[in-house]
Structure formats: structure tokens, C-alpha cells
Design goal:
The protein is α+β, with helices and mostly antiparallel strands. The protein contains eleven helices and nine strands. The chain has helices spanning about 25-50, 55-70, 80-85, 85-95, 145-155, 160-165, 170-175, 195-215, 220-225, 265-275, 285-300; strands at about 100, 105-110, 110-115, 115-130, 135-145, 180-190, 240-245, 250-255, 260-265. It starts with about 25 loop residues before the first helix and ends with a helix. It holds the Pfam family Chalcone_2.
Length: about 300
């Protein structure tokens, strides 16, 4: 019965005085310890999985610490509830491994990347082949460091609604142009895609963007970027490419798990991310979803 437990569940209830005597039989002592372990673990699990018992959970943990620091050789059964309190951490860790599926390709994206970056939204890059026909080249997801997002924009946009932000051209321009910690993750879905095709496509696309934002193509910068995609890197369905804007407008490129380049250039960063959430995005629906995701993270 709950009234007979030697550990009160209400942190404000009076402490139960210690027993005045201890069992004399080793068998009785063992039984009591086993019972205490079972009760302790049961209490700990119950407290751990019930968010409304946060106050009790904190009190139990502190009580157990006090007991163990007061006894030089603390009995092991005191640690049952304390060990069970680690469950919320495991649950949180599992929640971080949730995935979001890009519906056109079936590609799954982890909701959290590098422990701190949240997935804002996903989309697909298609390219036309003959007439109205097109092929799905890769799925993409845009990740943002939530702390970086709020540090940069909470003063300017924190009081605006999600609807207002997702429709704000200025908001997207600020995300694209500021030194915000972003990662663009691409996953190849077209099995016949070669690294040469990727290099050629970026040469055209980024070259056009550089002219648009800078008035000239900036051939040296373009060559530095496209030369990262060397023929030695083989692509296949499922290959992942990551573009990350690091502090100081440094664009990091990774193919698979290998870093293939670091280029410091605000212009290059802007030119790349604008392809996905700028005025003429590859996937308009994806841009809107990403806008909602960014706005939700900023205003929550």
C-alpha cells in the first residue's frame, strides 16, 4: 500500500523517521533489500515517465543523494529511484532521432542534425528532360541552429506571427544574407547522377547567381566552388551532400562524410541558399514549408 512506503512521494510531507531497529536475520535483510530495490525502481520509473511529477522527481533525487552522502557505505537499494530518473534523458534522445519524410521521394531526414540544428523543411529538386517530363534528382532539407536564429532575429521578428513571417520577403532575405548557422542537406535519388553532372549544374546555377548579386560572374570564386566536385568522388542513390554556413560566412562542403572544401564568401553563401528559399526557388512548396518551420522556431 502507498501509505506503507518508506519514501514519501510528496516533497512537502513530513519525513518518516528511520526504523529504530534492523533485521537480525541475514535472510530477512536480503528480502528487505530486494523489496526496497523493487519499490525504488518502481517509484523511479513512475516519477520519470510522469511529467506532472517533476517536483517529486527532483525531491526524490535530492533525498537519495543526501542519504548516500551521509552514509559511507550506502546500501545499493537507495539507487533504484535515482537510476530510474535517467529515463527522461533516454526518451528525449529517442525524440531527437525522429525523421521527416520528403513525400515525393520517400527520403527520410532526421529532425535534428549535429545535436543543435533543427529541420525547418524538406523539398525535392527536379529537372526537365524532354517536354513536360522531369526527373527527381535529389531531396533536400534545410536545417538551422535555433540559438543562432533567435540571436540574429528575435529582436526584429520575434513579435510577428508565423503567417506574417512565412510571407515576408524581407525575412527570407535576412535568413539568406545574414551570418546564420544553416545546413543544406541533399540526398541523391537519381541513381545515374554523376559528379560531373553536379559540377556542371552548379557551374551554371551558381554562375548565374553570382552575376545576379554581384554584377559579374566572379570566375575565380565560381571555379573554387565547382572544383570541389572532383571526379574521384562517386555518387550513387543515397549519397548525401552537406553545405553548411559556418561563422564568418564560411561555406563548408561535405560529400558523404568527407569535407571537400571551405570557402569564406558571403556572396557564395547567399548565392547558394537563395536557390532554395529565394525569389525563384527550386521547390516553391518547400520554400513555404521551410518558412513556416523557421518562423515557428523563432516564435516558439
Amino acid at each position: 500500500m502507498a501509505s506503507s512506503l518508506p519514501l514519501p512521494l510528496n516533497p512537502h510531507s513530513p519525513s518518516i523517521p528511520p526504523h529504530s531497529s534492523t533485521p537480525t536475520s541475514s535472510t530477512s535483510s536480503s528480502c528487505i533489500k530486494c523489496l526496497a530495490v523493487s519499490l525504488g525502481v518502481g517509484i523511479g520509473v513512475s516519477l520519470a515517465v510522469a511529467p506532472q511529477l517533476a517536483e517529486q522527481r527532483s525531491w526524490v533525487a535530492q533525498s537519495l543523494r543526501d542519504v548516500c552522502t551521509q552514509k559511507r557505505r550506502a546500501d545499493s537499494y537507495f539507487w533504484g529511484p535515482l537510476a530510474s530518473l535517467s529515463l527522461p534523458t533516454d526518451i528525449a534522445r529517442k525524440e531527437k532521432t525522429e525523421t521527416i519524410v520528403e513525400p515525393n521521394t520517400g527520403v527520410s531526414f532526421p529532425s535534428v542534425l549535429d545535436e543543435t540544428k533543427q529541420l525547418a523543411g524538406v523539398g525535392v529538386r527536379k529537372t526537365s528532360i524532354v517536354g513536360p517530363k522531369s526527373i527527381r534528382v535529389y531531396a533536400f532539407g534545410l536545417y538551422v541552429d535555433e540559438n543562432s536564429l533567435k540571436e540574429n532575429f528575435v529582436d526584429k521578428y520575434g513579435k510577428m506571427s508565423v503567417t506574417e513571417l512565412k510571407d515576408s520577403k524581407e525575412f527570407y532575405e535576412d535568413v539568406i544574407g545574414n551570418d546564420l548557422n544553416l545546413t543544406l542537406r541533399l540526398e541523391i535519388v537519381y541513381g545515374k547522377l554523376s559528379i560531373g553532372s553536379v559540377r556542371s549544374a552548379f557551374e551554371v546555377l551558381i554562375g548565374s547567381q553570382l552575376r545576379r548579386f554581384n554584377g559579374s560572374q566572379n570566375k575565380e570564386l565560381l571555379q573554387r566552388f565547382t572544383s570541389q566536385f572532383k571526379d574521384e568522388y562517386k555518387l550513387s542513390r543515397g549519397t548525401k551532400i552537406h553545405f553548411t554556413r559556418l561563422p564568418g560566412y564560411v561555406l563548408q562542403t561535405k560529400i558523404g562524410e568527407q569535407e571537400v572544401g571551405l570557402i569564406q564568401s558571403p556572396l557564395l553563401c547567399r548565392s547558394l541558399f537563395d536557390l532554395y528559399i529565394g525569389d525563384y526557388p527550386f521547390d516553391k512548396q518547400a520554400k513555404e514549408k521551410i518558412g513556416v518551420g523557421l518562423a515557428s522556431l523563432l516564435t516558439q
